[in-house]
């Protein structure tokens, strides 16, 4: 089959659409850049876990913001030292102060309460309108849908709707991978094997999240729009 864009021989099939390697990579990059192109904040927090998705995202954000001098990306990654050689080659401002401790067994580095405390510490030294209120996170489409299920199963339906819309109270979440499926990242991760570390970690998630993710993945095999439909439905719930 021919690539849908350039008509060269295809090597990748996404949702029954055929791509050559070059066109697939360009399409992937465009999806991420589309989410970030209107970002006007002078300071943004980038929270990465050290997972496969987070390292791919870091690579692309570095390319996108390398020449955008009006935006400073502050990188926070609990696994920074594990990937120090990779991160040191990126243009981000690395957070090097004593990070807040996790306060209870139900909290992790990526929950909204922890991010609020992290931002509070960061913003102590940032003036007025330049204070950080936007957070870039690594969730792809499948993960976002599973996280929303986790919210709902824990009695946080209102937070689920707000999170789907990208904002909980004053905290704005930016998700550059929000239009990208697991299997698309599988393809791209392999193409970056000489640049991005292949020793990415697995994030420890709650049992509810894992069950939700497996359920959504099973539905996606029959209807690839399932994660998108879940997110869009919750966005439309009245505030």
Please give a structural write-up.
By secondary structure, the protein is of the alpha/beta class. The chain has one domain (40-235): HUPs (Rossmann fold, 3-Layer(aba) Sandwich). It is 44% helix and 11% strand. It is built from nine helices and eight strands. It has helices at 21-36, 52-65, 84-88, 112-123, 141-153, 157-165, 182-191, 207-222, 226-235; strands spanning 12-14, 17-19, 43-47, 72-76, 93-94, 134-136, 167-168, 171-174. It has a six-stranded mixed β-sheet with strand order 5-4-3-6-8-7. The chain has a two-stranded antiparallel ribbon with strand order 1-2. The mean pLDDT is 83. It comes from Edhazardia aedis (strain USNM 41457). GO terms for molecular function: sulfurtransferase activity; tRNA binding. InterPro entries: CTU2 (IPR019407), Rossmann-like_a/b/a_fold (IPR014729). This is Cytoplasmic tRNA 2-thiolation protein 2.
């Amino acid at each position: 089959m021919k690539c849908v864009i350039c008509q060269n021989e295809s090597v990748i099939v996404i949702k029954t659409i055929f791509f050559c390697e070059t066109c697939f990579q360009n399409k992937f990059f465009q999806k991420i850049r589309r989410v970030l192109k209107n970002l006007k904040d002078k300071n943004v927090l980038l929270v990465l876990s050290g997972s496969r998705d987070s390292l791919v995202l870091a690579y692309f954000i570095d390319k996108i913001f390398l020449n955008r001098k009006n935006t400073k990306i502050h990188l926070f990654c609990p696994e920074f030292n594990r990937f120090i050689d990779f991160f040191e080659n990126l243009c981000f401002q690395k957070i090097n102060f004593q990070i807040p401790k996790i306060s209870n067994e139900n909290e992790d580095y990526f929950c909204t309460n922890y991010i609020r405390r992290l931002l509070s510490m960061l913003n102590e030294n940032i003036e007025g309108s330049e204070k950080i209120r936007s957070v870039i996170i690594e969730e792809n489409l499948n993960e976002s849908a599973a996280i929303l299920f986790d919210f709902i199963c824990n009695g946080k339906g209102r937070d689920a709707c707000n999170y789907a819309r990208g904002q909980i109270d004053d905290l704005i979440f930016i998700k550059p991978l929000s239009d990208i499926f697991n299997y698309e990242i599988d393809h791209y991760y392999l193409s970056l094997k000489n640049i991005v570390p292949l020793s990415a970690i697995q994030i420890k998630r709650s049992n509810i999240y894992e069950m939700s993710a497996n359920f959504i993945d099973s539905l996606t095999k029959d209807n690839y729009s399932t994660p998108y439909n879940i997110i869009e439905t919750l966005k439309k719930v009245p505030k």
